[in-house]
């Protein structure tokens, strides 16, 4: 197995928070089980970005599931990338899909899906879902476990 992490620049070091998603560096590490179809899940219950018109904060619960190919995303770089959206103005759809496509470009996974469960602004929650296509046959993919928005009812 290849466990070479010598090219990583953030793991185990003090790292400055990137100012924007464009400046953020996402890193990857070798998958210890290439060819095995398993799901890796990242749950981000406190994702924050800004409305591009009003600059008011928007909040989401993101769930990112992927079946790795040769690479895994290095989790510290992912955390820094995701927090870089705190000062980034973009609509819910743009944030959700940009995150997914950036991960697909970096990792070339066998499969990836993202669920963006956005909290209401103006009285309407906006949920955004995307995946790369059908998952590999036989892969166990659990439900994302996020109930639809119900408000106080």
Explain what this protein looks like in three dimensions.
The chain has 153 residues and is an alpha+beta fold. It has two helices and six strands, in the order ββββααββ. It has helices at 75-83, 92-107; strands at residues 28-30, 40-50, 57-67, 71-73, 111-118, 127-131. Strand 5 (111-118) and strand 6 form a beta hairpin. The termini are far apart. The active site is at residues 51, 58.
* Gyration radius, in Å: 16 Å
Spatial order of strands in the largest sheet: 2-3-5-6
CA-based shape: globular
Proportion of residues in β-strands: 25-35%
Mean pLDDT: 92
Helix content class? 10-25%
Number of helices: 2
Largest sheet: 4 strands, antiparallel
State the low-pLDDT regions, or none: none
Question: What class do helices, strands and sheet pairing give?
Answer: alpha+beta
Distance between the termini: 51 Å
N-to-C SSE string, H for helix and E for strand? EEEEHHEE
Q: How many beta strands in the DSSP annotation? A: 6
In short:
16% of the residues lie in helices and 27% in strands. The protein has 153 residues and is α+β, with helices and mostly antiparallel strands. It catalyses: 7-aminomethyl-7-carbaguanine + 2 NADP(+) = 7-cyano-7-carbaguanine + 2 NADPH + 3 H(+).
